[in-house]
Design goal:
This is Phage tail collar domain-containing protein. Residues 104-135 are annotated as: Disordered. With 178 residues, this protein is low in regular secondary structure. It has one helix at 34-47; strands at residues 18-20, 30-32, 55-58, 69-71, 173-177. Among the domains are: 13-47, no CATH class; 50-98 and 167-178, no CATH class. The relative contact order is 0.20.
Length: 178
């Protein structure tokens, strides 16, 4: 418990101590004023090793964002980082460039004959003719004829359904120092 000692009082120090309103860290015989210590503490507490505009990941909720930090949601001069991942800029992408899409899936497409899988249709028959079998008769009197099938498939548009190509992820909050 501290106690105020009324004047006159005398405190002795081994060397002369001066009172200062600034702290520079060089002098050993100076006592800082309460105002100087308060200003230095405020500056140290506000920096936290980060400068204004620095962005970091917050492993909490929006309600627990620390004082002096804001959600990177496109407001307050922050980049729109909600539901986004980061990619290194400088090559294909410019700094602060927003790209990508939430849409995934496939589009319908009509296959051409060249795009259809290679396939053939076999025919079988009986060249002995007139015997009452259930086989297709290809020729009956020794004359050979070429038979062809009609095109298979209807060349209808189709798709292959949605495919999720996202990497395994965890959702965290991007925050920016004011």
């Amino acid at each position: 418990m501290s106690q105020i000692i009324p004047p006159p009082f005398k405190v002795e120090f081994p060397e002369q101590i001066a009172l200062s309103d600034r702290i520079d860290g060089e002098r050993t015989n100076v006592a800082a004023s309460e105002k100087a210590v308060g200003a230095l503490n405020q500056k140290v507490n506000s920096l936290e090793g980060y400068q204004s505009g620095d962005i970091k990941i917050h492993n909490g909720t929006i309600a627990t964002i620390p004082s002096g930090w804001v959600l990177c949601d496109g407001a307050n001069g922050t980049p729109p980082m909600v539901d986004r991942a980061i990619v290194g800029a400088g090559g294909q992408y410019q700094p602060k460039q927003v790209f990508g899409s939430d849409v995934r899936g496939t589009e319908s497409r009509t296959l051409s004959a060249g795009q259809m899988p290679s396939h053939g249709h076999r025919q079988s028959g009986d060249d002995r003719g007139g015997r009452g079998s259930n086989r297709v008769i290809l020729h009956t009197n020794g004359a050979r004829k070429a038979y062809r099938t009609h095109a298979a498939g209807g060349n209808q548009p189709h798709n292959h359904g949605n495919i999720d190509v996202r990497q395994k992820s965890i959702a965290l909050i991007w925050i920016m120092k004011l």
